[in-house]
Amino acid sequence: MLDLKNITAGYERGRPVVREVSLAVAPGEAVGLLGPSGCGKSTLARVAALLHRPDNGTVTLDGALVTEWRHRAPRAQRTTVGVVFQSPRLAADPRLRLREIVAEPLRATGRQIEVRERVDELADLVGLGGDLLNRRPHEVSDGQLQRACLARALVLRPRLLVCDEMTAMLDASTTAALVAAVERYRRETTASLLAVGHDRTLLERWCDRASEWTELSG
């Protein structure tokens, strides 16, 4: 489903934060990527989610070589991947209600007709009950907002989900609920998962296998 080969990437020319890293995720597989803060895990996750162009190396997604990133990537590739970041406050527009946040990808891809049914379906999956969908980010907790961000990542039915420290800022009960929601989605769709984090216990329980960052670095 995902094949990263010899990825070198960074944000300043000549100063890579990821050097010669390779990682593969098979169809339907859940892979955990373990490593300390600052080692480059999030940069690799952004490359995998087609949000950051690597300086060197290749990315193959669902059998097709990736040649463009972000909005330049073909829609078919962009919608294959869903991504959830560590901080929901930085990932959500504070002006929008949670219902609008979840629906953003549908509207962006011209699928407005699906908004009501799909948003309500995902609200049930991630546990956004009551009037939470009608609230704005400042009116909900971090955990509730992260539930909305997870629903947004799933709204286009991606076949690969990238979770970059998705539960790092959350309590144990919310973490368990979000992991359960991801696993329910994966059971229903056979989607693959790349979960990035530093909690060994969580990733080893959640994923089919967990790789250490030091094992990947060239």
From TrEMBL:
The keyword Transport applies. One of its GO terms (molecular function) is ATP binding. Residues 2-218 form the ABC transporter domain. It comes from the Bacteria. Keywords: ATP-binding, Nucleotide-binding, Transport. PANTHER family: D,D-DIPEPTIDE TRANSPORT ATP-BINDING PROTEIN DDPF-RELATED (PTHR43776:SF7), TRANSPORT ATP-BINDING PROTEIN (PTHR43776). Belongs to the ABC transporter superfamily. This is ABC transporter ATP-binding protein.
